[in-house]
Amino acid sequence: MPSDASLSPASQNSPYSITPVSQGSPASSGIGSPMASSTITKIHSRRFREYCNQVLNKEIDESVTLLLQELVRFQERVYQKEPTKAKSKRRLVMGLREVTKHMKLSKIRCVIISPNCEKIQAKGGLDEALYNVIAMAREQEIPFVFALGRKALGRCVNKLVPVSVVGIFNYSGAEALFNRLVSLTEEARRAYKEMVCALEQEQAEEALKNVKKVPHHMGHSRNPSAASAISFCSVISEPISEVNEKEY
């Protein structure tokens, strides 16, 4: 069992692992409204990046750790018995570039991604590469899991350096561990979706309260209902965090 220190940053007594949150991160796409963007910004942080669309928890971290350690053990056993065939019988591949290359060849069966990768939004940067991996995983309908910090992920595959992404070629012999991980991830993704929906509803209700407080004359109409409609439109057309803020 991994210690708390080796678990993903957000799963160490974090609200993300306790309070369920949607599949509404930029990684899942489809959410472009200001209200949704505000919700995503509120949920995520440097240690739980926006590309993640599942909650993080110790069970998933432990499940990933056990699976990767088992696959590394299988891989090393093959290397000791048949060194010449070891490369062709690899179980894992590490690093964004290598994982991307093998995903393009449709050889990857599962992807493990650290939730705290460095933020590099420039064209061709790390963020773009991560979103490409996630998009390919969706397109190929293979599981992708967010778990462990980069250093912990590196240790799982016997690397002394941080690792952002691990691709699994073959999980034969560890099906039970793999299936458990997939099940836990599905639950975590549902919990994330529920959390985002709850926060969006909370923000919408707060926005509605703010609308009701706006004087009718601010709607530039003597018709109360028209004023309310205009005011409400102005509220939902911008992030909730900007509503009723003073201008300086």
From TrEMBL:
Residues 174-205 form a coiled coil. GO terms for molecular function: mRNA 3'-UTR binding; ribonucleoprotein complex binding; selenocysteine insertion sequence binding. Residues 80-176 form the Ribosomal protein eL8/eL30/eS12/Gadd45 domain. SUPFAM superfamilies: L30e-like. GO terms for cellular component: mitochondrion; ribonucleoprotein complex. Keywords: Coiled coil. Residues 1-36 are annotated as: Disordered. The keyword Coiled coil applies. GO terms for biological process: selenocysteine incorporation. It comes from the Eukaryota. PANTHER family: GH01354P, SELENOCYSTEINE INSERTION SEQUENCE-BINDING PROTEIN 2-LIKE. This is Selenocysteine insertion sequence-binding protein 2-like. It comes from Clarias magur. The lineage of its organism: Eukaryota, Metazoa, Chordata, Craniata, Vertebrata.
